[in-house]
């Protein structure tokens, strides 16, 4: 996940690394990572390279130079922007504008997936919010289809409710599965992946405590054997994105390299690599 190879310096666990994002491609290549899940957030969004053709050209140059690609864009902008409780006839245009713009940016940068996180303030736990989200997203689907972009949502919904939401869109909208977030909510990974595994296109690798925060991989409540074993049984072909706990500032390369070693053990064990 973008930003994990840049010191936090008080910016929190996840952010777009303005001024340092280019260096992450070289660092990722050095470690052996093959892609970056690119972040698009609301603060200073006009300075995000995805927002201009000049920036997108720079991204494509870095992909060519390092071999580190971009398959997905994490649209954290929607963590604060989606107006679930607004009068939708008046206020849906701004978030739709951002989403349509990101479809074009993803297409131009060579990405295939735009991830929409629906957590915390943008949670769909209330039924009326799910109804509003369906109304919001449905008009955007033809644009995404035209440009070959897939929308993938990450939610905190229980497995059966999540499947019901996906089926409303006829399977056109896919899923991001976050190992840590879901385990923290007490969900059974086998049940989740058995129910909706065919719609999962990205897996975020993270560990958390039950009803608690992010912790180093292997120290929380995630049953990684259950996760990888069930994904393997469903013939999962998508990416695995490290979105794990941060370590000490200025030791990001070492921290992420250890996380990659942890991930690779499971990828080899369950024959993903």
From TrEMBL:
Coiled coil: none
Protein name: Xylose isomerase-like TIM barrel domain-containing protein
Gene3D superfamilies, per database record: Divalent-metal-dependent TIM barrel enzymes (3.20.20.150)
Source species, domain of life: Bacteria
Xylose isomerase-like TIM barrel domain location: 25-265
Organism, scientific name: Candidatus Yanofskybacteria bacterium RIFCSPHIGHO2_02_FULL_41_11
């Amino acid at each position: 996940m973008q930003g994990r190879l840049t010191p936090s310096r008080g910016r929190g666990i996840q952010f777009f690394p303005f001024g340092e994002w280019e260096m992450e491609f070289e660092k990722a290549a050095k470690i052996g990572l093959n892609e970056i899940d690119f972040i698009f957030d609301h603060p200073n969004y006009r300075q995000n390279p995805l927002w201009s053709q000049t920036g997108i050209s720079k991204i494509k140059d870095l992909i060519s130079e390092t071999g580190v690609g971009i398959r997905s864009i994490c649209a954290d902008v929607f963590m604060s922007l989606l107006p679930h409780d607004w009068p939708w006839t008046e206020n849906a245009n701004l978030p739709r504008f951002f989403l349509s713009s990101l479809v074009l940016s993803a297409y131009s940068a060579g990405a295939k997936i735009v991830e929409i996180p629906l957590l915390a303030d943008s949670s769909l736990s209330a039924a009326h919010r799910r109804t509003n989200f369906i109304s919001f997203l449905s008009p955007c689907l033809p644009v995404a289809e035209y440009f070959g972009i897939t929308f993938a949502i990450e939610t905190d919904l229980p497995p059966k409710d999540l499947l019901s939401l996906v089926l409303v869109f006829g399977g056109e909208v896919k899923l991001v599965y976050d190992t840590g977030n879901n385990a923290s909510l007490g969900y059974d990974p086998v049940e989740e992946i058995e129910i909706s595994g065919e719609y999962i296109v990205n897996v975020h690798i993270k560990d958390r405590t039950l009803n608690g925060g992010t912790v180093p991989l292997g120290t929380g409540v995630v049953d990684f054997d259950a996760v990888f074993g069930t994904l393997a049984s469903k013939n999962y072909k998508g990416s695995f994105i490290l979105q794990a706990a941060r370590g000490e500032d200025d030791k990001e390369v070492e921290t992420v390299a250890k996380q990659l070693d942890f991930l690779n053990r499971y990828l080899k064990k369950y024959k993903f690599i």
